[in-house]
Amino acid sequence: MRKLPVLVILFALMLSCTPSEKKDGLSIRDLRKSEQTENTAIEQKIDELLSQMTLEEKIGQMTQINNSQIVTESSWGAGADLSIVTKVDTAKLGNLLRKYHIGSFLNGIAETPEVWYQFYKDLQEYNLQVSRLKIPIIYGVDQMHGPNYLAGGTIFPHAINTACTFNNEFPANMAHVTANEVADIGHLWIFAPVFDLGRTPLWGRFYETLGESPYQAATMGSIFTKALQSDTTIAPYKIAASAKHFFAYSDPKSGWDRTPTDLSTQTLYELHLPPFRAAVEAGIESVMINSGEINGEPVHASYWILTDILRNELKFKGVAVTDWEDIIRLYRNHRVAADEREATLMAINAGIDMAMTPYTTDFCEHMLALVREGKISEERIDLSVARILRMKLKIGLFENPLPRNDRFDRIGTSEHKQLALEAARESLVLMRNENNTLPLTNIKKLLVTGPVANLKAPLGGGWTLRWINHDESLYPQSMLTPFEALQKEFSESAIVLAETEADVKAKAQGADAIVVLAGENSYAEGFGSIDDINLPAEQTKWIQTAISTGKPVILVLISGRPRIITDVYEKTSAVIFAGWPGFEGAQAIAEVIKGKINPSGKLAFNYPYKPNRLLPHNHKPTEVLLAHEIPNPVALAHFGEGLSYTTYTYSSLTLSDSILRADEAEIKATVTVTNTGNREGKEAVLWFLFDEVASLTRPVRELKFYEKKSIRPGESVQYSFTIKPSEHLWFPDKDNNRVLENGYFTLSVGNLKTRFRLEK
Fold this sequence. Notes:
TIM Barrel, Rossmann fold, Immunoglobulin-like, 3 domains, eight-stranded parallel β-sheet, six-stranded mixed β-sheet, 23 helices
């Protein structure tokens, strides 16, 4: 009987432990130890700081505040008049630092490097003056496609364009340019790349993705991450990247941003987790969390996702930061918490390290109260703070906290712009080219029209100069609109602009062809949500008017996603999907139309046929069954398709063996590609696999490898792909166990197919 009180006490202690107190049987102290690096100096510094920090100072490190709360121009983070020089308001900043010890700030607009330099210098110097332990601030910025929040910076095409290049040089180039142009001004935490998949064009952030293939997103995202975080040309600085948005954020059931995702766990593991696994393996320093919910569970409150999967399964050891106000949204929107304090407890217990709060310090107050109430242990706080300090130490922020202004000549250089131009050129996808309408030659008069024909903003898309920016006056004077670029490229021809649909017929007289530029103006996040994926009716009518003239019509789609054009597609002479190609995009479009550049882009997604046919390339066989002989097209144009001004023939598909007899066995596949046309071109060769019979239904084809090479006329080039069972032939079950089954697999490349067998 004397043992009963002890058992009662032990039971009470067990109940008092929060879910974050244990992980795989490890105490938080053991967990902290498991996350330590081999750099003893860094780990000793972390331990030293934690031993000296007050609870308030630790909580401050876990807090990220928007810059609007510390500047003289309060609208600065969202958009401000560039004639107003924004400065740090030391009174506002002082309160945040002295009382709350804030460790991170974020956001901005495209100010000059001089303004950014002075802002960050003032911010960091004041922080170091006030900070008792001299812990530097880390500043986070959404530099999504080059330094898009830096006036004069080099603006690359968006990620969906990068994916359409199928050229792994471009994510590396963009990372290098971004690092070179922003490191000196203190932008050392970059909220990129996006590892979400572009599987529904209804989603307003489709353009931020690297396409619909998990393999391609993982590959290009990892290349960007490694290049950004390891760039030595920005010494003494280093940059931390952030994988967005962990995970399955991009496939909401409604297609609208921040709305629920409802997917099987097997689908989550097979499609949406692999890119983030690759991000962790690439050494990503941080992840930003999915703002939505998965199968009824808000991700910011999900221990299963943020600890079981992210920490236990993926072995991620970096910083998990919330997205905008997403702890607050747990009670305000998701309604899984009664108030913000309860929401804070849920998020911390789930595994959040830093709260992007971003307008208030309520998070600090709630955290302090929760610790004092015994609901969150200080040891749990130390776990997150150690991760945050480690990130700051790894990028050298303690040694080099201040910016520099002696290398601004590296910003917006001709070399950097050339890299952006090359990316834009290779990102353009020639979807249709009837009777070799393109390239245009012997043009005396060219009519240019369409709602985006003479605008700059659609070329940049969202996250360009501002979060959303339609103000044409803010774009560089040197930047060309599509109409201006065509004028430049066809300088010996009459290039006429029809600014309205009503002008098209009158101005088409005598024209040799009509270029119609349609699509979307810029948007970001929820403002890109739409209820109709069709190209707007007024734009379709504009295209139909051009077609009615009897002239060859070249349709160029400048858009953050594919909009359905099925009703006019077959009536056009040529179609180019241009995406959002960046500041050099207009020149690239004009060069392809003229024939100066041979297009080599291929679709990184299935171009939808109808609103209810939004199928990716890796759909299931039963999704395309014919019903009573009713046509059921998968897509208007397929993933991996894209035309050229030359022709290629695929031949001699061979395998080094026809049977794989062990997990570690390999088969080398080779194919010969011959340029049978009369001009040099670049051909991306895509390799697909299909598991013919499996215990779970398998996609009709899955991209497993790609490679792009330049081929001269008449030249034959060999491409190869090494197939490894442990890498390419397994799939996860609903519990995320790897399933590797014997049987036949179909390998396809170009128009060729062959089979091999796994026979362990």
